[in-house]
């Protein structure tokens, strides 16, 4: 429950940060604040470099690039917390495609239910606003799924250490992209104009995403996953969009239409249904460069 609360409120913090910082630079800044102390104080995990980089590019770079971009383009914080749950079905489909994991009937049914829910939410967004922010956020969910696959292949003995070192990957590519797309003057203005309205809230939001959303939230989640069965812990992540949408309604005044609410129920229900499995059966792996190298506001 505590982790779901931290991660659900994380979307409110991101929304506050985006009121002052450009989205791409904000991603670079968020991870740089974690990467610097990590490189100085935390030993690099003993995992193949390709999976560490893949995890950082998928989970860190692609996910948050499109999530922040989508929210800056108009995706409501509460809706973003819901659409990002598409990472679950995406992860299952990528696992079946590249790792030859067998998909059960319940998992396939869960994917279809979740896709139906996302279609309802996307249709409602298209009816009332541009669908582009929705699609950008959906791309962020795909990035999360790619990161999940790389994380799984890394088979880290200390998952929290891997999560911290993953943060070393996004800052440089995101800073380069920010300089190219957002420009040096806009970036410099966000670092100097702290007398502007919303600047203090943006800094507090940034600190929340770093300290609470990432370090404390991920640390607690990793601790729980290491001490309890995944099937007991993982379903609690379904509370994240509930917290996110409720907080967005209470704090930001966001509203949800009845079809969007029904779509949200379908998404959460579909993801939950897809996660109900006792074990994964692995088929013989194809001759691809995705062999195991040894073994997540």
TrEMBL record:
InterPro entries per the UniProt record, alphabetical: AA-Vitamin_Transporters, EamA_dom, EmrE-like
Subcellular location: Membrane
This protein's UniProt keywords: Membrane, Transmembrane, Transmembrane helix
GO terms for cellular component: membrane
Transmembrane segments: 20-42, 49-71, 77-99, 106-124, 130-150, 162-181, 201-224, 231-252, 258-276
Taxonomic superkingdom: Bacteria
Topology class, membrane: Multi-pass membrane protein
Domain EamA: 2-121, 135-273
Kinase found in the keyword field: no
Family listed: Belongs to the EamA transporter family.
PANTHER family: AMINO-ACID METABOLITE EFFLUX PUMP-RELATED, INNER MEMBRANE TRANSPORTER
Name of the protein: O-acetylserine/cysteine efflux transporter
């Amino acid at each position: 429950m505590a982790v779901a609360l931290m991660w659900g409120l994380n979307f409110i913090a991101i929304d506050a940060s985006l009121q002052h910082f450009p989205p791409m630079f904000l991603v670079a800044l968020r991870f740089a604040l974690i990467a610097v102390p990590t490189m100085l104080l935390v030993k690099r995990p003993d995992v193949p470099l390709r999976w560490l980089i893949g995890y950082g590019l998928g989970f860190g770079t692609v996910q948050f690039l499109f999530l922040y971009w989508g929210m800056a383009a108009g995706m409501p914080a509460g809706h973003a917390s819901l659409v990002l749950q598409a990472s679950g079905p995406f992860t299952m489909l990528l696992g079946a495609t590249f790792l030859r994991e067998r998909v059960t009937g319940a998992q396939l049914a869960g994917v279809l239910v979740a896709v139906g829910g996302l279609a309802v939410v996307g249709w409602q967004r298209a009816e009332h606003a541009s669908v582009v922010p929705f699609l950008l956020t959906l791309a962020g969910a795909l990035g999360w799924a790619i990161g999940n696959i790389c994380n799984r292949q890394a088979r880290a003995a200390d998952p929290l250490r891997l999560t911290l070192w993953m943060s070393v990957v996004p800052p440089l590519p995101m800073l380069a992209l920010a300089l190219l797309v957002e420009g040096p003057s806009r970036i410099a203005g966000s670092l100097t104009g702290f007398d502007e309205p919303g600047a203090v809230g943006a800094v507090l939001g940034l600190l929340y995403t770093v300290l609470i959303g990432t370090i404390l939230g991920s640390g607690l989640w990793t601790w729980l996953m290491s001490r309890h069965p995944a099937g007991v812990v993982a379903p609690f992540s379904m509370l994240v969009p509930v917290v996110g949408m409720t907080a967005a309604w209470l704090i930001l005044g966001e509203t949800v239409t009845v079809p969007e609410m029904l779509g949200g129920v379908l998404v959460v229900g579909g993801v939950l249904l897809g996660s109900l499995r006792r074990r994964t059966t692995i088929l013989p792996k194809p001759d691809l460069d995705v062999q195991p190298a040894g073994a997540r506001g």
